[in-house]
Automatic annotation (TrEMBL):
Pfam families: Staph_reg_Sar_Rot. This is HTH marR-type domain-containing protein. The keyword DNA-binding applies. Keywords: DNA-binding, Transcription, Transcription regulation. Residues 3-140 form the HTH marR-type domain. The keyword DNA-binding applies. Transmembrane segments: none annotated. GO terms for molecular function: DNA binding; DNA-binding transcription factor activity. SUPFAM superfamilies: Winged helix' DNA-binding domain (SSF46785).
Length: 142
């Protein structure tokens, strides 16, 4: 298989997996995939400024502003003015937001754990583990 064919196949599969994992989230039906991902970034990183969130999510600052507004309306995040620059506001998860992230992670992990257990042999699980490491390298490459 050529690199271009492998790239296309990997992209298609990653996209389908992403959509499937989104379908498994029952507790966040009113959130977009970008909003769910943004909450996950906050869960992993703690407090972030909107510009940092936009960079991590690979979206424009204006788009992130809309995401932040919606998450704030739903009481999923907390805004804290910067002590050094009052024009800046740091964003973090509210208690409710943290609970939401933990629930959505549980729902996705539960489905994926079951799918792996029911569909893959021990050798295939090892191959999948190796593939995850390779995919992480690709994601982190420039």
């Amino acid at each position: 298989m050529k690199n271009s064919e492998l790239a296309s196949s990997l992209r298609d599969t990653a996209s389908r997996m992403h959509k499937r994992l989104k379908r498994e989230i029952k507790s966040a039906d009113n959130l977009s995939l970008t909003e769910i991902t943004t909450l996950s970034y906050l869960y992993q990183n703690g407090e972030l400024f909107p510009s940092e969130m936009a960079e991590i999510a690979m979206v424009k600052a204006q788009s992130m502003s809309q995401v932040i507004t919606h998450l704030d309306e739903l009481k999923l995040i907390t805004k804290t003015p910067s002590e050094t620059d009052k024009r800046k506001v740091a964003i973090s998860l509210s208690t409710y937001g943290r609970q939401m992230v933990e629930q959505t992670r549980y729902e996705r992990d539960k489905w994926l754990d079951g799918a792996i257990e029911q569909n893959l042999s021990a050798a295939e699980k090892k191959t999948l583990q190796e593939a995850v490491a390779l995919m992480n390298r690709l994601v982190e490459s420039k």
